[in-house]
Design brief:
It catalyses: hydrogencarbonate + L-glutamine + 2 ATP + H2O = carbamoyl phosphate + L-glutamate + 2 ADP + phosphate + 2 H(+); L-glutamine + H2O = L-glutamate + NH4(+). By secondary structure, this protein is of the alpha/beta class. The chain is built from nine helices and 22 strands. The chain binds glutamine.
Length: about 425
């Protein structure tokens, strides 16, 4: 019913955003499936191609946009008003508490953003500039004044769809031919965002972690170093097996695109898992690589999961995670591991998504003699809920146990504490 229609919402016809007064040039979002949405341009006055995805997160547009896993994607925010708290200065100290940036990487990673109503006026004590000026500085286009609810319903029904944002004089041109759309999932995006050379963060930390960088979010590094880890960041296809004796644990990060492009890393990891018994932890892409090394297949979901409100059910207990509890999580993924019965020997499902029953985590079984966990969600959040943040402490506690043969005390000063179910303030419920 939406095919070939052009939507011109009130804000787009009125030439201005609801919270500002400037006149913005026209822009059109074309979907490869044939629908077009006319709006107004902000940020870089540039036409681009990408993969159109939606996120249900209400806050943290700055963190989402700097997450390298959004590389090549046209990010649609379902929250209508975006930009109202501006953008902070993206510099932080490089010490045991931070990694040189405030956000998730040095700059904007997504190809473009789509919002219902961009806030030109912003207000926050840390804000240094508007969303539009930040996008302009990073040469990233945005489109505002489009019906993001209609776009999201389309993407939910037909799945993640290739798109084009045409800006300025391009906005009135007809939609591109189907063959002109660029498909980022055909490229090895991990190779574009991963570090080219190894480097160290917090080298004086007591537990030595090697991190395979598939496009790591800064908050993963922060979450490790604030708990006392020294982290050596390695390129995604680094030969970890040649240096593994120097480390107390291995971490595999998040990253953009199809995990099949990283089969080389999965095959190297398979050897690591056969020959090395120290703890291994992976998040999102890292979890998919662990799964592929274990013999599971990855598949492309219809529209993936992106947002900060994804409930997952723990199927097994491990460290701070208790079987039978539901944790609310932050997510950004298009691919998932396929549930298979039986699971590969030595492995078991760890979490399952309460909305779509997709696998949200796997772990090595107690009998396997290994300590390996992978989670599809982001325990480090940024943004999102901190329900599962203690998984980083669990990982480092296991690494320390391997290293010292005893479980060390946690440094509570630097570890953000969360309420457990038992310690949470009780809310009186009327009878
Ligand atoms: N955040 C991530 O690591 C995403 C992993 C993978 N690129 C996916 O879309 O499923």
């Amino acid at each position: 019913m939406y095919r070939k229609l052009i939507y011109i919402p009130r804000i787009a016809r009125g030439l201005a955003t609801s919270s500002g007064s400037s006149i913005l040039p026209p822009a059109t979002l074309h979907l490869k499936s044939g629908q077009s949405f006319l709006g107004r341009s902000f940020g870089a006055p540039k036409s681009i191609y990408g993969e159109t995805v939606f996120s249900t997160s209400i806050t943290s547009y700055t963190e989402s946009m700097t997450d390298p896993s959004y590389r090549g994607q046209i990010l649609v925010f379902t929250t209508p008003l975006i930009g109202n708290y501006g953008v902070p200065l993206n510099t932080a100290p490089s010490d045991a508490h931070d990694v040189g940036v405030v956000l998730e990487s040095q700059g904007i990673q997504c190809a473009a953003v789509v919002v219902s109503d961009v806030a030109e006026k912003f207000s926050h004590y840390a804000a240094a500039e508007s969303l539009a000026s930040w996008c302009q500085r990073y040469d990233v286009p945005g489109i505002t004044g489009v019906d993001t609810r209609a776009i999201t319903r389309l993407l939910r029904d037909q799945g993640t769809t290739l798109g084009r944002i045409s800006v300025g004089s391009d906005a009135s041109l007809p939609a591109p031919n189907a063959t002109e759309f660029w498909d980022p999932s055909l490229e090895n995006l991990v190779d574009q965002v991963s570090t080219k050379e190894p480097y160290e963060v917090n080298p004086s930390g007591s537990i030595k972690i090697a991190l395979l960088d598939f496009g790591a979010k800064a908050n993963i590094l922060r979450s490790l170093i604030r708990r006392g880890a020294a982290v050596t960041v390695l390129p995604w296809n680094y030969d970890f097996n040649a240096v593994r004796d120097q480390y107390d644990g291995l971490f595999l990060s998040n990253g953009p695109g199809d995990p099949m492009h990283c089969m080389e890393a999965a095959l190297k990891l398979r050897r690591t898992l056969e020959e090395w018994t120290k703890p291994v932890f992976g998040i999102c892409m890292g979890h998919q690589i662990i799964g592929m090394a274990a013999g599971l297949d990855a598949y492309r979901m219809t529209f993936g999961n992106r947002g900060h409100n994804q409930p997952v059910l723990a199927l097994a207990s491990s460290g701070s995670i208790k079987a039978g509890r539901v944790y609310v999580t932050s997510q950004n993924h298009q691919y998932a591991l396929k549930l298979q019965d039986p699971f590969p020997r030595g492995w078991e499902p760890f979490f399952i998504n309460c909305n779509d029953s997709s696998i949200e985590g796997i772990k090595s079984t107690a009998e396997s003699g290994k300590n390996v966990w992978g989670v599809q969600f982001h325990p480090e959040s940024a943004g999102g809920p901190l329900d599962t943040i203690e998984m980083f402490s669990d990982f480092l506690t296991e690494c320390a146990a391997h290293k010292y043969g005893a479980v060390p005390q946690k440094n509570d000063e630097t570890v953000p504490q969360m309420h457990t179910f038992e310690s949470a303030p009780k809310i009186a419920v009327a009878a």
